[in-house]
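Example record for the data management plan.
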Amino acid sequence: MDSDILQAFQRELTCSICLNYLVDPVTMGCGHSFCHPCLCLFWEEAQTPAHCPMCREPSQQRDFKTNIRLKNLVSIARQASLKHFLNSKEYMCVTHKERNKIFCEEDKNLLCLLCSNSEEHRAHRHCPIEEAAEEYREKFVKQMRSFWKQMKENQRNLKRENRKINQWVKSMSLQWYVHLHREATKAAYRMVHPDVHEEEKEHLETLIKEHKITVQQLKKSKAKMLQKRKQLKKVFKELMKMCHKPDVELLQKDQFNFFLCRCELVVMHMPQPVRPQLNAQPITGLVDTLKHFQGECHSNIMLFDDVRSLIFGQDNEDESLNSDRSNFFAAWGDQAFASGKYYWELDVNDSWDWAVGVCRDSVVRKNYTMIELEDVFLLLSVKEEKHSSLLTTSPIFFLHIEKPLGCIGVFLDFQNESVGFLNVAQSSLIWRSPAGSLNFPVRPFFFRRPNNYG
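Corresponding structural encoding:
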């Protein structure tokens, strides 16, 4: 082949990021192709919206499939380069003066055909050097793909920890949540104990102490994840470097096993996100006091057979509510309340997904089939992978309290215009909406999805 044509052919098979032959080539929508690991690392380090490194065209696609045809062309080009390389005197068999073109899997040596048939190597597994190199390179590529997933998981966890730290240290919303929880706790104690109670002091002091401990845990977790990110990135770049090595160097003794062990060690102890959690301290006598306001409203809650799911959207990236999916099908009681104080209990058992509270009466009377978040005061448990998160509406808060089991108490207080939720088994306050937030007639609301439902 003409040298100019050969060089042009090789240029087309070269990644413009690393300037080496393409490894695990992927092609973007604009038509430009790159090594998949190079493109991933380029986007990760650029910290800008995904775009083509050559033409700068934005890319919505992040998960690319290997361009098989381009991969095969690269393999052909490497084989041509390898044959040219092995023709040099340096890689001639010293004993037989033949070209080494066989790879011995047992000894990890390059052999000529005569040596491979010798008594020393006859029983060993042999294959052409180019096949062995492609096989090893493919192993490195698979390892990189797996390793990249670990890197992205660590990066997502790091973002979560940063977000939590901002919430627990800087966020006005969380400070407001802690303030509201303190005020709600004080109000609960005033109902049960007119005078300042020693238990109340301990309760509030514990809340402050747990907040400080949580911040320390989050910062320690963040430091571990930052360190792990450096380790992961370093090994990933070393894997990339190995893939770009010439075939002969790639087949050197035990390189793959060495890197495989190293990768396993690095990912063996991946730091996991901290789940901040404040203990729901019991308030002595709280449930007994509220039961004085217990009426028959809890028995009037009627569930319909066609209630299938609670459509509650959540954005995985920023852990915030997705307003586009904030509607849900509801079941409500047949009695409305506009004044007074009422208390009832609902058994959520050990269900993962449930919601209890009250909904605006006018919505029910208009026979709406969907309810907006601003029309409800709810405590919700939403399943996330292997655990549940507690949330409230009006206002929307993620509650950093252990998910209660058994009965949830709902306290409707029109005198203070608020709705409160209790963990009945522990006689503890889960959440109480700010005073003055409830200013419209409501009906009881209840949803519980069985655990065996998809």
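Summary line stored alongside the record: The first strand starts at residue 25 and ends at 27.
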